[in-house]
Amino acid sequence: MFADKIPEFRTDRERQYWIISFYESQIKSFLKNTGKETKNGVKITSRLIKVTMERYTKLLEKYSATNW
After folding, report:
1. Domain limits of the chain?
2. pLDDT of 1 over the 60 cut
């Protein structure tokens, strides 16, 4: 969804927000489509969901996004 159109960012905060929003979108999509394939042919497995959630959590910590 988001990866097709990566926008120009005016600030680091905008870029960080976009990255976090992208991961949120991916997690939601993966949870709805477990067992199916992405448009790029990747099978959505519990492992894929888990590593995506782990990365999302690390990004929240890195960008201190819990204070948004």
Report:
1. 12-63
2. no
- In this prediction the pTM is 0.80
Residues 34, 49 contacting (CB under 8 angstroms): yes
Find the helix packing angle between 12-32 and 46-62, rounded to 10°.
160
* Pair 18, 7: CB distance under 8 Å: yes
State the burial class of residue 64 (Cβ atoms within 10 Å of its Cβ: 0-12, 13-18, 19+). Answer: exposed
The C-alpha atoms of residue 35 and residue 68 are separated, in whole angstroms, by: 33
Q: How far apart are the first and last CA of the chain?
A: 23
Q: Contact at 8 Å (CB) between 62 and 52?
A: no
Contact 44, 33 (CB under 8 A): yes
Q: 3-state DSSP call for residue 35?
A: coil
Of 23-32, 49-58, 59-68, least confident by mean pLDDT is 59-68
